[in-house]
Amino acid sequence: PLLEAPILEAKNITRRFGGVVAVSDVSLTVGKGRIVGLIGPNGSGKSTMVNLVTGELKPDLGEFRFNGEVITGEPSYKRARAGMARSFQMLRLFHSLSVEENLLLAHHIRMKSSLIDTVTLRRRAIEEEQAVRARARELLAWFDLEKFAPHPVSALSIGQQRMVELARGMMSEPTLFVLDEPAAGLSPPNVDRLITLIRRMRDEFGMSILLVEHVMRVVRDLCDEVVVLDSGVKIAEGLPEAVVKDPVVVEAYIGS
Ligand code: ADP
Ligand code: MG
């Protein structure tokens, strides 16, 4: 039998912005149920790579496969439907809406096509609506956010907002979650909580994760393997313990 395809394969991805080669011939693979870290100094191309993976940007060269299927030209909403979720380095929540509304909205944005005017379809839409509400409640409980459900996001701490962002991403039942610096701005106890939660997201939902992160503790504790970028180029990959000691990697961080 054929080996099961990895959930994500990036092959020889290149993306330029004018004269800047933000990502240069980068390949990486995320196997099913794996947590793969993407690290590198500021400006090394991590966020660009995330945007290429999720389809917000198109590569100049290279190919992406998701569950073995080529998705290189697919827009981000199609990738989301196929099971990709992401979080943003700068959170993108609706601050004046409640926590619960943010979760419900995440779903509705992707479901406009259910507004069709027949009784059967309307009934189906109502059932779907109830299922979505049930899922939102389950996720709020899972992330220990129930007590914040009716409150506006603006009333929450950054740490709590990051949890809302993760819960929102889970609404679409993703199989791959791409996280762009989820620990940014978190206090040490909140970093601990985040590590535990991301590990549980993998273990309990069978999620695969591509994790961009600056906080080395998060990388060391969570990642099965790590890819290191410097000036858009992949300079190292392997086990986190080995990669963080690699002289080439140390040099790249010191030089930045
Ligand atoms: P990182 O997330 O690792 O800090 P980025 O992917 O944000 O790095 O940036 C990589 C390089 O690409 C930087 O030199 C940055 O200035 C450049 N870059 C990123 N996005 C754009 C853009 N939209 N337009 C022009 N240059 C960009
Ligand atoms: Mg970035």
UniProtKB/TrEMBL annotation:
Keywords: ATP-binding, Nucleotide-binding, Transport. GO terms for molecular function: ATP binding; ATP hydrolysis activity; L-isoleucine transmembrane transporter activity; L-phenylalanine transmembrane transporter activity; L-valine transmembrane transporter activity. Residues 8-256 form the ABC transporter domain. Signal peptide: none annotated. PROSITE patterns: ABC_TRANSPORTER_2 (PS50893). It comes from the Bacteria. GO terms for biological process: D-alanine transmembrane transport; L-alanine transport; L-isoleucine import across plasma membrane; L-valine import across plasma membrane. GO terms for cellular component: plasma membrane. Transmembrane segments: none annotated. CDD domains: ABC_Mj1267_LivG_branched. This is ABC transporter ATP-binding protein. It comes from Phreatobacter stygius.
